[in-house]
Structure formats: structure tokens, C-alpha cells
Amino acid sequence: MAGRFIFQTDTDVENFLNVEENKNTKRKTEGYLTLVLAFLATEKEYRKLEDLRPAHLDTYLSRFLLSVQKKLGEEYEPTTLRGFIASVERHLKKQGYSDSMITGYKLNMTKRPKETLVDGSPFYLTINNLSREKLALSSAKWFKPQPMGVNKLNTLMRDCAKAAGLGTDKQITNHSARKTLVQKLRDSDVPPTEIVQITGHKNL
């Protein structure tokens, strides 16, 4: 009687899992890209993603992430939103796009002072005004080890809101994002004790 099981080596199993993982990644990427392109169509933008200039692509993706929702009107989880970005990144890389959203973030991290790379350090730092010659050096640090000032942050938020097409009908400050986050967490029934750990508030 022939055996009912075919002998498989560890390599066979690993190869099978890799193939299935690649299939899932490809399927998700195609699905996410379809949704992004559908959004662009609502903006009357029919060019390919790789044909868009970085500034235009950044604006479109910002609007997309702020407006996309599930079929029943529910919001996507943050991990899914990161999946959208990763899918766009993979597609653009495959098409030989000159810019990279992820690479830009990694480059930013290499230009920060070493002491600001530890947990608890502020993300927005004071800009280090260097000459063009010094900026060209690979060892140059773009930022100082001090947090960015409140007034500069407020200006930055207004500029970001304008670039994202949010309009100027209401005042948007650096506190707006924090306030919105708290409201979203409360609406999702996140316990207050967990909210303060996320936002950094000293009390409930």
C-alpha cells in the first residue's frame, strides 16, 4: 500500500511558505493599488503613480489616507494604512521611481544627533542652519539636539494642512493632531489609562 504522505524536507517547506507569502503580498499590493488609483480617479487624476512628481504624489497620498474608509464606512486600522504606503512604495520601486517615502524617513534618522535617537526624544528638532558645503558632507547633521519651538511647530502644521488640501477655514495647530488622536481613541473605547501613555499627558 502506497504511503499517504510524501516526504518533504525543511527546505521544501520553507520554499512553499515563501511562495505563498509572495502570493499574499502580491495580492494585497494589487488590491491596495486598485483602491489608490480609484481615489485618484475621483480627483480627476489619471496619470500613472510613477508619472507623478513627488510633491503631487505626496499631496494625493495625504488626502487618500485621510479619506479612505471601508465599504461600511468604518476606518482602517493603522497597520492597514501602513500597508497602503508599503504597497505604493513597492510599486514605485519596481517602476524605478526616483524618490522613496521610506528611504526619506531613514535618511532623516541618520541626520539627527545621536542623543536624539533614544526613546522619549522629541521627533521634531530645531533645524541646523549649515552652509551648502557642510550640508553636502555625509556626516552633516541637519538638526540640533533641541526640540523645535512651539511657534515653528504651529507654522509647520499650517503648512502641512495647506499642502494636504485641508483648507484654512479653521485654525490648525500642533495641538490639533493630539486632540484628534485623543478623541479617536476615546471613540474606540480605549481606556483613559492607556490614552495618557500614548499621548504623554501627566493626568487623566
Automatic annotation (TrEMBL):
Gene3D superfamilies the record matches: Intergrase catalytic core
Record keyword GTP-binding present: no
InterPro entries, per the entry: DNA_brk_join_enz, Integrase-like_cat_sf, KIAA1958
GO molecular function, one term: DNA binding
UniProt KW keywords: DNA recombination
SUPFAM superfamilies reported for this sequence: DNA breaking-rejoining enzymes
Descriptive protein name: Tyr recombinase domain-containing protein
Species this protein is from: Pocillopora meandrina
